[in-house]
């Protein structure tokens, strides 16, 4: 099949679809950049905060590494390298996973919990400033509805 005939099979975006896609990307970049900058000012990355907050909500403040990686959309090896850096800072520790001989558990340390407790007000204020306060209640409801549609498997 030639490039020309395969290109003809592409369903290009309409102008309205392209504007919506680009607007969505701009919003994601702007909000993420703002909240990441605010977290960086207190010595945390977005990934650090995600791991700490997730672990704080889990029973015994513990999660299998593979579950955390899935939640974050990361590979196990990428999260493992990140967890090594967090462990060196005393934010978490690792232990063997009794349910998975090749896996490990991520366990929030007291220092990690204290760090999260100190960072949470800054993070919430950042989310408010860069996102919540810029939208009306009906905008927030629409975003929730859109997220539910997009999070599921694509219709094919």
Automatic annotation (TrEMBL):
HTH marR-type domain sequence ranges: 17-152
Origin superkingdom: Bacteria
A Pfam family matched in the record: MarR_2
Region (Disordered): 58-79
Basic and acidic residues bias spans: 58-70
UniProt-recorded name of the protein: MarR family transcriptional regulator
């Amino acid at each position: 099949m030639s490039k020309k005939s395969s290109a003809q099979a592409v369903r290009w975006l309409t102008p309205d679809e392209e504007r919506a896609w680009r607007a969505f990307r701009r919003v994601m970049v702007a909000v993420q950049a703002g909240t990441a900058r605010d977290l960086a000012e207190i010595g945390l990355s977005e990934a650090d905060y995600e791991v700490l907050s997730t672990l704080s909500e889990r029973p015994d403040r513990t999660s299998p590494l593979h579950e955390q990686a899935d939640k974050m959309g990361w590979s196990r090896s990428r999260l493992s390298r990140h967890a090594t850096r967090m462990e060196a800072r005393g934010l978490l520790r690792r232990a063997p996973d009794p349910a998975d001989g090749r896996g490990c558990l991520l366990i929030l340390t007291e220092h990690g919990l204290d760090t999260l407790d100190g960072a949470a007000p800054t993070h919430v204020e950042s989310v408010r400033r860069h996102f919540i306060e810029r939208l009306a209640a009906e905008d927030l409801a629409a975003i929730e509805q859109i997220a539910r549609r997009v999070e599921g498997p694509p219709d094919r």
